[in-house]
Every structure is written in structure tokens, then in C-alpha cells.
Amino acid sequence: MNVEQSGSPDFSPQHLPRHSSTTVNGSSHASLNQDISLTRKNQEPSDPVSSKGRPKTGLITGHDIMQEISKTKRDDLLRFEQMDPSLSGRGAEPIFRDKKGQRISKEEYLKSKQKVEEKPKEKKLEWGKGLAQKRDAEARLQELEQEKDKPFARTRDDPDLDKMLKERVRFGDPMAHLVKKKHSGPVLADLGDSEKMKESGFIIPQEIPNHSWIKRGLDAAPNRYGIKPGRHWDGVDRSNGFEKKMFRRLNEKRATEREAYLWSVSDM
Q: Which of 6, 54, 143, 208 lies deepest, with the highest CB count within 10 Å?
């Protein structure tokens, strides 16, 4: 169906005249473009102050950067000085709080601080790293000090060397019981008889009770760690028998290995 015959105009682009100036809201495209171009040419920056305060771009030197940084700092300081004290908090009274966060007066804060300063500092316990290790280190240090004063070469008549050889216990020696010291030292070391421990308020009782296995002359059963019982053990074995079974099994295993080895070399 032809549009022209229907009587309605055809506004499609291909049928518009080539040099026609269509009006939009009473103005042509040419005048609209002219107005836009004039507006762009005559347009001025909305905020000239902010454009001046912008940092320089492009190739700048270190001196220019330092000047910009110092200027920014001066502007910030001036802005802070001109700020309202209610906003900046300048000249406001300090607020003191206790441990719970509640407000207290200055006098109460000073009193609490003075109490903390007057409180005596707790003395560090001497056995923080182990008294036995510390005593061993002191004994080794004392031994080194003694060795330092001795001559470089040792002779047969050296009393310390002679004493050490006499007190040495050798495996299979039938007279080893005669070599033992007549006055042996205490079985348990005195780990609490120290002035520093007493000053700290931690005192370990060192007396041996009457029911102790030490006073009763009993022997403690061996264990896998080689640790002797304390002075308060009464000599009664209350274990489940695991240590005895373990040592018995180890002895049986060693005996079996020994017997197998003897059988293997019997023909050689």
C-alpha cells in the first residue's frame, strides 16, 4: 500500500529533502549547534580556587614537590587553628576513666596511679628455668674455675685425679662395695633452701618424713625414665605392673637374641 495515496506524510529519512532544515522546538539544527559551540567557548571554570590549589602535573622537580608539601601542611595547620574549639577539642579538659571505663576525677586518677607505683613488684622466682639445671651450671662453672688455677700437666701424685680414680666404680669389680663413699650426699637435692626463694614467698618443705622410703632404707623399683620417687613416697608400689612387665619383656628379648647369636656362631 502506498503511503502517499493514504494521505499521511512520510517522515522516513530516505524521503526527506537533502537541503531541508527541520525545526526542533522552533529552532533549526544549525542554530542549535551554534548555540552549543558558543556555550562551550564562553564556559568558565566553576571553581577557580580549587583549580589553583591543584598540584602541578607533568615534569616537576623535587623542589616543587617540597614546596607543595610544605604549603599543604601550612594550609592544614591554618585550617585547624581557625576551626571551632568545640569541633577540634582544643583547650578541653581531659577525661579520666578507671579500669571499668567509668569517669573519675583527676584526684582519684592520681591516687590510683600512686597506689600502682607504690605496690612492690613481685620478685621473680628463682626456679623459673629449673633449679636443678641452674645448680648443675653453677657446679660446672665452679669446677672450671678450679681447673683454671691448676697446672697444665697432671702427674701421678695429683690428689684430685687420685681421688677420682679411687671413687670410680667399675663393672664386675667384686670389691666395688668397699670403694663407695662412706658418707654419701643427700639422695634428694635441697631445691628450696634459698634466700631468693624465701623472699619470693615460695618455700618448699625440705624435711624428710618418717614414712619416707629414704629413712626406711627401701629401694625404689626402676622405671623407664630412670627417675627416683620423691621424699614422700612410703615404699608401696601402687602401679598396675606395667614397668615390671616391660623390663621382663626386655630381658626376655635380650636373652633370646643372645641365645640366637650363640647358636649362629656355634659351628664357626
A: 208
